[in-house]
Amino acid sequence: MSEREAAAATKAGSGQGEGGLRARLVAVGVELVTQEGAQALSLREIARRAGVSHGAPRRYFPTHLELLSAIAREGFAELGAEAAAELRDDRKGPRAQLAALARIYVDYALTHRGMYELMFRHDLLESNRLGLRETSLPLFEAMADLVGRARPDVRAPEVAGALWANLHGVAQLWGWGSLRLATGADGVEPFVRAALDAHLGPER
């Protein structure tokens, strides 16, 4: 490792030498995707912003895909933490928890657009070198469990998958301005409620 790279590792503040540089590369990637979107995540640009040579990331992430997976994992961890905090409130019934979960998901998609785009790229989900599936699947499993409790008469994984796809589409179309243009709606909330009603039946 060069003196410049060693300095970057120290700057990362982990106190663990090269492990600090690895964390720094991921943190820089998270910052970059937040500011400029997934298309900006080149190894060269991440290295430049981390203050290391363009070949340095290869020491920790042999492929570009592995670095992208590590960055996406941070997004799933953040979204999962928000969802877990809501699901700990067992005073709500499964339908109310599903509604809260749906709102958290759509809000995250709209406020973290670059990270959200990165998180749900199919090619990343096929890569499990860094435990991406273990970070992403619990959220869907929680949704499927709530669907099963709210509607024990349906096949929960399929209904949860359809609801998830619907919410994903709502977030994308609202973010692009398409839903606002087509419907004149002032906010995304009516579409979230409609998606829940469509897949779970009207709230009683």
TrEMBL record:
GO molecular function: DNA-binding transcription factor activity; transcription cis-regulatory region binding
Short name of any one Pfam family annotated for the protein: TetR_N
Stretches assigned to the HTH tetR-type domain: 19-79
Keywords, in A-Z order: DNA-binding, Transcription, Transcription regulation
Location of the DNA-binding region in this protein: 42-61
InterPro entries (alphabetical): Homeodomain-like_sf, HTH-type_TetR-like_transc_reg, HTH_TetR, MT1864/Rv1816-like_C, Tet_transcr_reg_TetR-rel_C_sf
Highest taxon, organism lineage: Bacteria
Record's protein name: TetR/AcrR family transcriptional regulator
Entry annotated with the keyword Membrane: no
Keyword presence, DNA-binding: yes
